[in-house]
Amino acid sequence: MSILSYFFIALGLALLALLGYAATRPDEFSVERRLRVAAPAATLWPLVSELRPFSRWNPYERKDPLMKGAYSGAERGVGSRYDWDSQVVGAGSLEIVDQQPGQAVRLKLDFIKPFEAHNVAEFALQPLADGATEVRWRMHGPATFLSKLMGVFIDMDQMVGRDFEAGLQNLRELAEGGAGAAP
Questions:
Q1: Burial level of 1, CB count in 10 A (0-12/13-18/19+)?
Q2: Superfamily of domain 3-176
Q3: Which tens digits make up the pLDDT trace of 63-95?
Q4: Residue 125 pairs with which residues in a beta bridge?
Q5: What does the pLDDT average to over 106-135?
Q6: Do 75 and 86 contact (CB within 8 A), yes or no?
Q7: Which residue among 101, 126, 159, 170 is buried most deeply as judged by most CB within 10 Å?
Q8: In whole angstroms, what is the distance from residue 66 CA to residue 49 CA?
């Protein structure tokens, strides 16, 4: 056998090892960030519980000011929906599916492009003794084989986590600046 044959055999074995390793990764993923905001939960609630005010601090809309978005469904609360299309951040939809008034909101998050994915996003507010609020932003869902393979090379927690951190900072600035009331 030639050296080139050994090279291709070694390359094939390395590829099989990579695919095998990717297959052993967890079947679900979760990304979560928390931030203390010096504002009461009542100030933050309208900003995290409704889709129109969410656009005021959404880090993905700030990444692409040309993003096209459309609201549909209920005006507020469960059933309200936002669809977006962007050359920068992809396309998908966000729909409120559950709320615990003043405390938590759960959203169905569907991505169409660049990759199809169906996840859950959650915001939770925890009032603190000093009048501030801890805000938690979490996204979780199934990890497809493609996402497991990508996860070998890309740290999704770090990549998405940076966006969550930026969004929570935007929220903090909005709420602490006194402009927290919903339009």
A1: exposed
A2: START domain (3.30.530.20)
A3: 998 999 999 999 889 999 999 999 999 999 999
A4: 135
A5: 95
A6: no
A7: 170
A8: 24
Q: 18-40 as b/e, with b when 16 or more CB fall inside 10 Å?
A: eeeebeeeeeebebebebebebb
The per-residue pLDDT of the chain, averaged, comes to: 90
The answer to whether 17 and 148 are in contact (CB under 8 A) is no
How far apart are alpha carbons 123 and 135 in whole angstroms? 7
In single-letter form, the type of residue at position 174 comes to L
Stretch 104-123: mean pLDDT, rounded?
95
Sheet-wide strand order for 80-86:
28-37, 133-142, 117-127, 104-113, 90-100, 80-86, 68-73
Residue indicated by tokens 């900072």: 169
CA angle 132, 137, 138 (to 5 degrees): 145
Q: For residue 60, what are its two tokens?
A: 């993905």
Q: Which of 61, 27, 46 is nearest to 145 (CA)?
A: 27
Distance between CA atoms of residues 168 and 133, nearest Å: 12
